[in-house]
Design a protein that fits this description.
alpha+beta; Beta-lactamase; two-stranded antiparallel ribbon; globular
Length: 335
């Protein structure tokens, strides 16, 4: 099927660009609350599933062994902006396990945050693996290996014990096989698996409620969500959408962006999981859609719904900062 237009970009009062996609909201039993587009088409969730990938860090006892609190757990789920506080916390996580930046196999890139990039460049610094937006997740992987007595070298490989733990958690939470025929390599070098949006939404509803989990996994999932919602800056960074939504939600909303127009989220108080994908991979469209969906689901709370809804309509600015248009949910997204 052809996915509907979910987001429009206006310049003046005229639609200049459109973004198609699919989205689904369901509860932990799989009952559908909202569905638009093809929610059964497999997609690579990329970084949107880092909270699930962090389960072994908590369940193994590694988080407790190394004294990780909310900030460390949030960073383990992060696609952070590479600000100084992010890089420093990733280094501290590694140091707690007797490791340093050389243990990371995620590669390096300039910080995602413009100001963080300028700050690093002003000092004559060069980006390292700690600035990689996935350095917190990878620090969690290697710390889990140390706790379990497993050599972390090569931990990004599909057959390494680290990625076996992650794959087992992903399969159990989403309810679908993560087989080699749907496996590719993520930007940070670990395996990523194409699974339907429907399964991702179900997985995040389960993470939010503990439904179908044993007591230890339910406790670990809750701990991870609480940490991210308590420390949203460490999940993303200054003025990032995940940070802004979770700060506004004050412990009521979990969100996590992924590359190529993917977003996953959960509303623990309602027991809902959310997953969406914009066909063209545009982050701007995915951000508008997730904010619009959350605002719609929180319609009984006028103030919070309005706050999140405003995030779904960012302004288009000229180079001089003048407002020249807006990005907005399309009619199909609001139906």
């Amino acid at each position: 099927m052809t996915n509907p237009v979910l987001v429009e970009v206006l310049r003046g009062g005229i639609v200049e660009s459109q973004h198609r996609g699919a989205a689904i909201v369901c509860d932990a039993r799989g009952a559908v609350v909202v569905e638009v587009g093809d929610a059964d088409q497999p997609v690579f969730p990329r970084s949107a599933v880092k909270a699930i990938q962090a389960l072994p860090l908590v369940e193994s006892g590694a988080a407790d062994t190394f004294g990780f609190g909310n900030r460390e757990l949030a960073l383990a789920c992060a696609s952070h902006s590479g600000e100084a506080a992010h890089a420093e916390l990733a280094a501290a996580m590694l140091a707690s396990a007797g490791l340093h930046e050389a243990a990371l196999e995620c590669g390096s890139h300039w910080p995602l945050g413009d100001e963080a990039t300028r700050a690093l460049a002003r000092t004559g610094g060069e980006p390292c693996a700690l600035h990689n937006n996935c350095s917190g997740k990878h620090s969690g992987f290697v710390c889990t290996c140390v706790k379990e007595g497993v050599d972390p070298a090569g931990y990004v490989g599909r057959n390494h014990k680290s990625q076996q733990w992650v794959r087992e958690a992903m399969e159990a939470v989403t309810g679908v096989p993560h087989s080699e025929d749907v496996c590719a390599i993520d930007g940070c070098s670990i395996p990523t698996y194409a699974v339907p949006l429907r399964s991702l939404a179900l997985g995040f509803a389960r993470m939010a409620t503990g439904t179908s989990f044993g007591p230890e996994r339910a406790k670990a999932a809750q701990r991870i969500f609480v940490a991210c919602m308590a420390e949203p800056f460490f999940v993303a960074g200054t003025d990032r959408m995940d940070t802004r939504i979770m700060q506004a939600g004050k412990g009521r909303i979990f969100t996590k962006t992924g590359a190529e127009g993917v977003f996953c989220a959960a509303l623990p108080e309602l027991g809902f999981g959310i997953a969406l994908k914009c066909d063209d991979g545009a982050t701007r469209a995915a951000e508008t859609m997730v904010a619009a969906l959350i605002a719609r689901l929180l319609k009984d709370d006028d103030e919070l719904s309005a706050t999140i809804g405003a995030l779904a309509r960012p302004k288009v600015l000229s180079r001089r900062g003048a407002e020249v248009g807006e990005i907005r949910p399309a009619a199909a997204a609001l139906a």
